[in-house]
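Try this one yourself first.
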């Protein structure tokens, strides 16, 4: 009897996870956004490893304190960070300096707006299965 109960519990858990992933995917599509699984702890405790973030790939504006995601040459994964400061280039276009909440110093370099996506929502913990499947 215990073996059957354990199987039922596992089946219910799997169905719940599939339904949750489907809802997250639908939310991402409805928001014309994209979805990423967080693979590191640089934004802890605000955003943790295994959280899923929904991002707006074409934000109209970014302000100091916004959480963003962008590509860097020194890491194979995209970086999730908070905008630490903003300055303008010689043409008046904004450039952004980023810093992880869990890091003492900002990341190197200034990033233009067209290379930044804005984190618009965080689903805690749901991405751990994806990390296990990916071997991360």
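Now uncover the answer:
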């Amino acid at each position: 009897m215990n073996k059957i109960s354990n199987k039922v519990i596992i089946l219910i858990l799997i169905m719940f996870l599939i339904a949750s992933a489907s809802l997250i995917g639908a939310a991402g599509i409805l928001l014309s956004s994209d979805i990423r699984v967080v693979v590191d702890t640089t934004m802890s405790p605000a955003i943790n490893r295994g959280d899923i973030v929904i991002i707006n790939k074409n934000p109209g504006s970014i302000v100091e304190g916004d959480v963003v995601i962008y590509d860097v040459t020194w890491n194979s994964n995209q970086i999730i960070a908070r905008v630490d400061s903003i300055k303008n280039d010689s043409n008046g276009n904004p450039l952004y300096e980023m810093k992880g909440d869990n890091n003492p110093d900002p990341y190197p370099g200034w990033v233009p707006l067209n290379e930044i996506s804005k984190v618009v929502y965080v689903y805690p913990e749901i991405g751990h299965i994806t990390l296990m499947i990916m071997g991360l």
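Discussion: The longest strand covers residues 79-88. The CA atoms of residues 89 and 95 lie 7 Å apart.
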